[in-house]
Amino acid sequence: MIALIRFKLAAYARSHRLLQPLTGLFIMMVIFYSTLVPPGKELPSYADSAGLLIIVFAWAARGLLDTEPPAQRLISATSAGGPRREVAAGLLAALAVNLGLAAIAVALPLLHGFAVTPPAGDVARGAGLHLLGLSAGTALGALTSRPILPSPATSMLTLFGGYLALLLASLTPAGAFAVPVMPWMRAANAGTLDEILLQVTAATLFWSAAGAAVYARLRRTRP
Amino acid sequence: MRLSSVSFRYSRRGPWVLREVGLALEAGSVVEVTGRNGAGKSTLLRLLAGIVRPSRGSVTGRPRVVGYAPEVFPVEQPFTVAAYLAHLARARRVSPAAGTALAERLGASHLLDQPLGDLSKGSAQKVGLIQSLLAPPGLLILDEPFAGLDEQTRAELPEIIGEVASGGGTVVVSDHQNQLRSFPGAEHWLVADASVTVPDAERVRRTAAGNDRERASRELAEDDRERASREVGDGERARHAVIEVLVGMEEADEVEQKLRADGYLTRRPA
């Protein structure tokens, strides 16, 4: 399966599709860190970044999964020993790309963006929140990829609409049980992130896994 | 390999593409699948290859290594032919040299450095064929492989199919142009009206030479040809015959293997 993941990553890199989410990421980085983040505000900054970059992570995952032509997915499935492995290789390749994007988002402000270097604990919490953001983004990207939504217009609308719905749902009283983007942003600002971190992590990973499972289920009849 | 009551549709409310299909595939058999456009040939091939799962029913006994060449090879990929084949060889855990050797055999060595996007239709079909053969397949599925091929490859392909079958592999070919009509021992399936039919003559031959192989083998071992003839049904008796073939000792294994691959029973006198 590793060979198939490498094949998908090589195709994605050579297709230049990576430039789109990379451009989106750098635009967001410029907006976030055009003025230096004052001491003590690094964690809220990371929390905002992790929540807002979900759309970039979703875009990258969708782009990667759409790189392979439909007939190549059939070839890849037989080469890898079954469609499940092809689906898993696609999701893992998308996660790998998003891990790279998240690493940039976490490391960049340490080089330029934060007025002072934050404590290691805050960097770790920030990295953790980005992991949550990329898992939710990868699932959203997979659900809007071409095998599931063949029309590019529908796919893009669903991707942006889905992200908006995700943000709005997290504003409601049930937000802590949806993908809790707003709750983690608010808690980071209020200095109470540690109190809800476990709940936020569980809810985000649950919804991400549920999204990935729905994607894998739908792919059974959408090779 | 066996398909039992297999039905398939692409969505819960969509029309049935195939309904209650029951088929058996012997190891070493060659099957040509025909049918009009949109009849469901490609879907049947995808079910056989394990790319999609049946909505109902089951497919059992599928060989571990499946080679699949789609009807239209996807050239819109950012690789040269050599890089593409090397990636797929690694995915199949075989040496990238396998692709080079197959390219040489199919007269495609000159294509190796070309980008996939620059290939003509026939050249792209060759790359599709090569990738399906990178690892010796236990099941080889070729969707319209003859389309766009040059004469040399068109002549080479039945030989390759024969070799895979001789090695115990099962070959299923969707063939709109009926290019395998004279392939020795090939079975012919017709896909129409969401079902797969095997013409009567084929079914009789398969019953006599394939499905009842164990029973008939036992009977032949007893050297009771009359009894073997009596055991098959009235309609089959007329088509059942014993042919003695004399071959040189050095060729005996090869000829026997080929006959068995074609679905015939063979025995050697003690």
UniProtKB/TrEMBL annotation, chain A:
Transmembrane segments: 21-40, 46-65, 86-111, 123-144, 156-176, 196-218
Alphabetized UniProt keyword annotations: Membrane, Transmembrane, Transmembrane helix
Source taxon at top rank: Bacteria
UniProt keyword Membrane, yes or no: yes
Record's protein name: Uncharacterized protein
Annotated organism of origin: Planobispora longispora
From TrEMBL, chain B:
Keyword list, A-Z: ATP-binding, Nucleotide-binding, Transport
Transport listed as a keyword: yes
Residue ranges of every copy of the ABC transporter domain listed in the record: 1-219
GO molecular function, one term: ATP binding
Record region (Disordered): 206-235
InterPro entries attached to this UniProt entry: AAA+_ATPase (IPR003593), ABC_transporter-like_ATP-bd (IPR003439), ABC_Transporter_VariousFunc (IPR051782), P-loop_NTPase (IPR027417)
Protein name per Swiss-Prot or TrEMBL: ABC transporter domain-containing protein
Source species: Planobispora longispora
